[in-house]
Specification:
Blueprint (H helix, E strand, L loop, with lengths): L1 E6 L4 H14 L6 E7 L22 H13 L2 E4 L18 H13 L5 E6 L3 E2 L3 H9 L14 E4 L20 E5 H7 L7 H4 L24 H10 L17 H11 E4 L6 E2 L4 H4 L4 H4 L3 H9 L5 H5 L9 E2 L3 E5 L9 E3 L2 E7 L3 E4 L2 E21 L1 E10 L4 E11 L13 E23 L2 E13 L21 H10 L4 H9 L1 H6 L9 H9 L3
Parallel strand pairs: 1-2, 1-4, 2-3, 6-8, 10-15
Antiparallel strand pairs: 4-7, 5-9, 11-19, 12-13, 13-19, 14-18, 15-18, 15-19, 16-17, 16-18
Length: about 525
């Protein structure tokens, strides 16, 4: 195991706890800490066997104790001595540490000894070996003509970007962690340092024609993730092209390489502690702009599919269409008027008057007969009725509803040795495509309720399908302007989101708004005289 990254005063306690936890989970593994930079370690006195802080930090207990834990836990230390910061990849981003990342990875992998290796950020914790079990399953898929590694390498679905989505970035595969054969991971990181010319590419070059607003934020020629992946696989496939970050000439080949050499895992399928990116893990739109595990599995098992048909996303989440047979929506896909999101669940407590506990996800849904199943992990009630509704058009059309009476229910499902309480409701969509599909849960006199997920299952001849036969999610309708406004509203607080819905003209006219030209100029020019 090779953990890499900076080691700084502000997070040394967190990292020491993570490393200690890794030793507990993998007691026989070699643990290498590859230190890219630090604000308290004396690099000259530190060695492969221990880190030593500067004298002025010896009296700070948090640093002293953390160093003791790290020294007692880590087998080998390596340090960076040839790297410096680079200008930011995108406008508004901090300076880039890509060369620290490359040097730290190389130095750590160089002294790794075991057959398999986990190269991971030092602030990222796999809380159990569950990811290895998932890796073994994913490696069973057949490989094809773009195979280079001896076996697949496991990566995160988050920031394995979908090049057919809004921001078109082929070869952008997540670098949070790599798990697989040491020989494969070691070879992947045998890349040259990034130079200043590469990082300031767009200071002297035009963006490609047709680049959108997101793609025009780049300063560097490509993202760092693209640089690592493309540099390696270009050696084996010389005809690959990536002359700019959004150069899509090899877009299909980038997916071929992803399928043949990597396997993608969703964060729901492994136990993780990663506070820096906790919000990203539960940000709904990331499910669309990234290549999910389910989509990877669909493509890996059906190599004759057209990648564009499966991955194309031209609209925001409210236009996504449910077309697959079994759809699992964790609670973070939904909203709540009486509860909050805690982890991956919706939690509400002390509900006296009737209130909406869950609503959404506002997807479109295609024609067919369905069953929705709500999974509840905690339920404490008084005398109450829990109402379930399936609706379209923001509640204007009710497809079905049911009410369930509870009398001082106190997690009674646990008595039946069940982990979750399930509520199911059948419904039918008669139109070819219906908009703003919701599963709404209301109730009162509830002491505590925790909702984990909702499944939407397409029925086949009255039966629940046992296999996922399709995973296509298609965008529907909407002008470019509608799409842009819906997209940026996802990043606003509630007040700002309501403002753009109430009066878009005033929203764009406001000079203090952060979403400025060219979209504001376009909107005011088109609608300013109306």
């Amino acid at each position: 195991m090779s953990c890499r990254g900076g080691l700084f005063k502000k997070d040394v306690e967190n990292i020491s706890n993570i490393i200690k936890e890794y030793r507990s989970i993998f007691p026989e593994s070699q643990i290498i800490l590859s230190v890219s930079s630090s604000d308290f370690i004396n690099m000259e006195l530190s060695s492969e066997r221990s880190i030593i802080s500067y004298d002025r930090f010896l009296n700070i207990s948090s640093i002293r104790n953390s160093c003791n834990i790290i020294n007692d836990t880590v087998d080998n230390f390596v340090f960076c001595s040839k790297s410096t910061q680079m200008p930011p990849v995108k406008s508004g981003n901090p300076n880039c540490n890509v060369n620290f990342q490359i040097e730290a990875a190389k130095n750590g992998l160089k002294i790794a000894k075991n057959t398999y290796c986990l190269r991971v950020r030092n602030d990222f914790l796999f809380k159990s070996p569950k990811f290895i079990e998932e890796y073994e399953k994913l490696c069973s898929y057949k490989r094809s003509n773009y195979s280079v590694f001896k076996n697949r390498v496991l990566i995160s679905s988050l920031f394995t970007l979908n090049p057919f989505a809004i921001e078109r970035l082929p070869f952008h595969f997540s670098d949070w962690f790599h798990f697989g054969l040491l020989s494969d991971i070691k070879s992947l990181w045998e890349v040259d340092f990034v130079n200043l010319n590469y990082m300031t590419h767009y200071n002297n070059n035009y963006y490609l024609p047709g680049s959108n607003n997101l793609e025009r934020k780049f300063n560097s020629k490509t993202a760092i993730e693209q640089y690592i992946i493309f540099s390696y696989f270009k050696k084996y496939f010389p005809k690959l092209s990536l002359n700019a970050h959004n150069d899509t000439r090899s877009i299909n080949e980038s997916i071929d390489i992803l399928i043949d050499n990597f396997c993608v895992i969703d964060n729901e399928n492994y136990d993780v502690f990663f506070p820096k990116y906790n919000k990203d893990m539960f940000f709904v739109s990331n499910k669309n702009i990234c290549v999910s595990q389910r989509k990877w599995q669909l493509l890996a098992s059906n190599r004759n599919l057209n990648y564009s048909d499966i991955l194309s996303i031209k609209n925001d989440i409210s236009s996504m269409e449910i077309e697959e047979d079994i759809n699992t929506f964790p609670a973070y896909f939904f909203k709540s008027k009486s509860g909050i999101h805690l982890g991956s669940e919706i939690v509400a407590s002390n509900i006296d008057e009737n209130s909406v506990i869950q609503y959404g996800p506002h997807f479109s849904i295609s024609k067919g007969k369905y069953k929705a199943i709500i999974y509840i992990s905690t339920l404490l009630t008084m005398e109450t009725i829990l109402s379930i509704r399936v609706t379209l058009g923001h509640g204007k059309e009710i497809l079905n509803e049911k009410a369930i009476r509870f009398s001082y229910y106190a997690n009674d499902f646990l008595k039946d040795s069940k982990d979750l309480y399930q509520i199911s409701i059948d419904f039918e969509c008669k139109a070819d495509v219906s908009r703003d599909f919701e599963v709404v849960i209301e109730g009162n006199n509830i002491k505590y309720i925790s909702i984990r997920k909702t499944e939407v299952i397409r029925m086949k001849d009255g039966l629940i399908p046992s296999l996922i036969t399709s995973n296509k999610i298609s965008p529907k309708g909407g002008t470019d302007l509608d799409f842009f406004m819906r997209t940026i509203s996802m990043f606003m607080d509630k007040k700002m989101s309501n403002k753009i819905k109430r009066d878009p003209y005033l929203f764009f006219k406001d000079s203090k708004n952060i979403f400025l030209s060219p979209m504001r100029n376009y909107y005011l020019k088109k609608y300013g005289n109306k």
